[in-house]
Amino acid sequence: MSSVCEDLEAIQQQMLANVIAKMRKEAKGKKEKPIALLAEGTRINDAPKDESEAKVFDDGLEVVSRSKSFVCADFNFRDVDRVRTFYNIAKRTNRKFVINLKNAPFLKYFHQFPELDIPNYDDPDVILCKTKLYTGTFADSDYRGFAQYVNLPNTKTTVEIGQEQEKYLCAMGFYNFPQFIDMKIKSGTYIHSASEPWSEEQTYSVERRDNWVDHFGMTNEQIHCSGHASRADLFEIVKEIDGKMLYPIHSGSPEEYNGVVNNITYAEYGKKYEL
Q1: pTM to 2 decimal places
Q2: What is the pLDDT of residues 138-179, one digit of tens each?
Q3: Which of 85, 153, 152, 151 lies closest to 119 in space, CA to CA?
Q4: Start-to-end C-alpha separation, the chain
Q5: Hey, how many other C-beta atoms are within 10 angstroms of the C-beta on 47?
Q6: Which end of the chain has less Cβ packing within 10 Å, N or C?
């Protein structure tokens, strides 16, 4: 397990190194001499953490390997790194990777780019899940817009998946809980692989989510790493590009950029700025 994690970490670090090297070689941001640089700061006050996509894989693999029953992973399917991570976890644990029918086009699109290393929708280790929709059945007419995926050899209904639920890792989340009724889930593992709630409304959603998880007798696991840049990375990027004026955005502490660069404007909502 550790060797796989180390391999993924090495690949991720090499990819990052290649991006930075290319940026420095082309000096694109700096070369353009931008008059304004917008820099986010979501995690600018966060303490350094031991987090990476490789660690998500390592922790996820450990959790799924322990499970002898149903497993679902709740994450943003447009996050290609997370898709790849849980697909590989499924393969390593001899499970099929189950995705919602509506996400099949994402795999079809991602698969066009070899560097992403994402399986296609007809991959032998991928299962397309048909859920009950408008008619409350599995009628083909309910899947308008997804007709090409409805009757493929690797398409299964929620009922079929539920009959052998221990054989699958399902990429499903909050809005799929009603489908678990058709699967007859009575135990298993729910992996939340997204950010923790940061608003009052999201806190209520977590309470509802946890009620569903308890209802189906599942254990609750939080396995995630942020997609936002760290404080150190933000400072390095801002200094490297060296725009004429820095405008911090999406941050509760924009003043943290003080001293990193000389010219900073703290934008006010609704105010117009001449560049």
Answers
A1: 0.78
A2: 999 999 889 999 999 999 999 999 999 999 999 999 899 999
A3: 85
A4: 52
A5: 7
A6: C
Token pair 């007709």 is found at 147
For 123, counting Cβ atoms within 10 Å of its Cβ (0-12 exposed, 13-18 middle, 19+ buried), the class is middle
Pairing type for strands 96-100 and 188-192 reads: unpaired
* Distance set, CA 133 to CA 50, 145, 149 (Å): 41, 13, 15
Alpha helices, DSSP H only, in 167-255? 177-183, 200-215, 231-241
For residues 52 and 16, the answer to whether their CB atoms sit within 8 Å is: no
Whole-angstrom Cα distance, residue 217 to residue 46?
34
Three-state SS for 94? coil
How many CB atoms neighbour CB 257 within 10 A? Answer: 20
